[in-house]
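Q: ATP-binding cassette domain-containing protein, please. Structure only.
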Amino acid sequence: MIKIDHLTKQIPGGPTVLSDISFVAHKGEFVSIVGASGSGKSMLLKCLALREKWTTGKYTVEGVDVLANFFTGQSKIRREFAFLEEKPILSPSRTALKNVLVGTKYQTPAWRMLTGMVRNDDYMGAMDTLEKLGLLDKAKQKAEQLSGGERQRVAIARALVHGAKVLLADEPISGLDPHTSEQILRDLKALCQQGLTVVAVIHQSELAEKFSDRIIGLNQGRLVLDVRGRRLTTAEKLQL
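A: Structure for ATP-binding cassette domain-containing protein:
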């Protein structure tokens, strides 16, 4: 369980971009974050990933007070949380398989990033994960040859192979066609049913309604909606 209590994020010398945010995300839950541009959606994800410092608040993950136990908490976030960029950062000259195996600077020791070396017994798990995401036939293709949707699925596979229990996805379907967008959200939903927790910024509220277990709405850095298991009403959409 992930519990956020009274998260506030102020830019040093600047505005408050998140104000008094509290919510709980349970294991296997698909949580969508919706709101207008500039409402603080991406900043919220970065705070959950500890890529941005919290000004105030309490952050508990599976009973661990992350901010009060900095080294233990940071290690836990580093091991168990994966941040999926809007445009995944892959090595263009490496194959999809090698991108999955090597990981990112947040997941992988520096020596492995530089050399690309992996253990032989890692390959089968990576291939199984690529197959699960419909990318087995793309395993040997270089990342630069993949479509936007395929690159997103490679990034998801990479997170899973490196042990992610929580996926923080920042607009994972941005710029993709409707069919590909739905396929990626369908994949994420299926992974949630296997125990992965997904917290995703979704720009299209209709897709958030279709695939989410829960919708969190932000407006100017404040939480204005926390809706579970149903579509948003017209009045609720007007709050965003």
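A: Brief note, in case it's useful. Residues 2-238 form a domain with the Rossmann fold fold (CATH 3.40.50.300).
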